[in-house]
Amino acid sequence: MTMIINETLRLYGPSHGLPRTVAREGQLGKFILPADIDILSLNIGPHRDPHLWGDDVHLFKPERFAEGIAKATNYTAAAFFPFGLGPRSCVAMTLATIETKIALSMILQRYTITISPTYVHSPIAIITIQPQHGIQIILEPLHSC
Ligand code: HEM
């Protein structure tokens, strides 16, 4: 389940970028950043970079994470940051991951989930990444009451 959550966060994590204000002039790679400008560091760049993830970068392949995040990213710390990086990264990273596992486990113990034929894959960024037309799924009970 950890692999599935990581792959979901890689492609469709709710946060798609980290806004930052440059406190003082500095250099970032080949760019000189003047003080007091706002920048947005989009994680869609590294999360979908074929040089980091391979030619199948756009495919949903949880098995990329079979041997952990470090191995999946070829030990590139900034290749995968759905919860941010550094001192202001998400304080609830562990909580959010455990909550997700509990919710999924409760659903999967009771239902099978099939994506509806009416579902149209169209993620959109409106503050967070979200499915533009919702996610239509079919739940079938595993046990009769
Ligand atoms: C999958 C779920 C979540 C994701 C992907 C996520 C992602 C993020 C990201 C990207 C940041 C900004 C990090 C940065 O600026 O470097 C952040 C900050 C934060 N998140 Fe989350 N988050 C999640 C769930 C939660 C939940 C459930 C809570 C609270 C119960 C929470 C509380 C916070 C707080 C308080 C901060 C601000 C930390 C700071 O500024 O020091 N997050 N989160």
UniProtKB/TrEMBL annotation:
Membrane topology, from the record: Single-pass membrane protein
Organism (species): Gossypium harknessii
Cellular location(s): Membrane
Requisite cofactors: heme
Pfam families tied to this protein: p450
Top-level taxonomy: Eukaryota, Viridiplantae, Streptophyta, Embryophyta, Tracheophyta
Gene Ontology MF annotations: heme binding; iron ion binding; monooxygenase activity; oxidoreductase activity, acting on paired donors, with incorporation or reduction of molecular oxygen
Protein family (similarity comment): Belongs to the cytochrome P450 family.
Chief location category: membrane
Gene Ontology terms: cellular component: membrane
InterPro entries on file: Cyt_P450, Cyt_P450_CS, Cyt_P450_E_grp-I, Cyt_P450_sf, Cytochrome_P450_Monooxygen
Domain of life, source organism: Eukaryota
Protein name (Swiss-Prot/TrEMBL): Cytochrome P450 CYP749A22-like
Keyword annotations: Heme, Iron, Membrane, Metal-binding, Monooxygenase, Oxidoreductase, Transmembrane, Transmembrane helix
Residues reported in the UniProt entry to bind heme: C90
Keyword Membrane: yes
